[in-house]
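Example 3.2
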Amino acid sequence: MRPVRGLAAALAEGPLVLDGGLSNQLEAQGCDLSDDLWSARLLADGPEQIEAAHAAYARAGAQVLITSSYQATFEGFARRGVSRAGAAALLARSVELARTAADAAREEAWVAASVGPYGAMLADGSEYRGRYGLTVRELADFHRPRIQALAAARPDVLALETVPDTDEARALLAAARDTGLPLWLSYTVARGHTRAGQDLAGAFALAAGNDQVIALGVNCCDPADADRAVELAARETGKPVVVYPNSGERWDAAAGRWHGRTTFDPARARGWQAAGARLIGGCCRVGPERVAALAEVIGGR
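Structure, written as tokens:
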């Protein structure tokens, strides 16, 4: 169902349920994501699979659907021989596919255009390290064209997500400034710091006075790391907090598989909500079943 309110107005009234990990749902649908473009490849090769994944989360109770553009860049598509115009069309398609699923939802549903970090384009895990050796201006120049392409497709909000350090946060905020769209900024964190090892309070504070930022928080992290981060983000900024951690399992890059146990407990959302979280969902390995449980906990459905 098309939203009748802006996302900021909805957040002022209460918490909303975010979706979960898109890649794990696509794999559950039988998709092969062993590719540098990851889920973005399906924008060209299997858009119906992406729409089906969004629809699965909408049925589970997700009220905000994040597009499949996390790893979609002009540079990445160019390596596959896709023209610049073709890449812009694929970025727009990511918004359209999420919008179709959102429109089919029974209640209001918003579309968030995913803008992943520079390291996602490199596909070498550097988004979990940051500090790529580029200046803030160089990073902003990289992000600006795809942010503009996504904004032209008219999502409800930009999701500047899985940000590993404050340099990239500054670059993303600069690149998004002229879009006129509200946005959220979410860092990937570990042990109370950004992935680059920076003070998390300072990382949150740099966006505190930015009116374009309607929510601030963390994603793609261990659920335990999210607990303290939610409290810190609320205290440092006074803004609604966005939180969507991973399942808690660990990725073994050498073996190419996940291991360990799931520690994502939907009941944790009660504490996050009490601390100021208003956008609550899951990231890697958190599927529709857990999102449905999360929606029950926070009253999203």
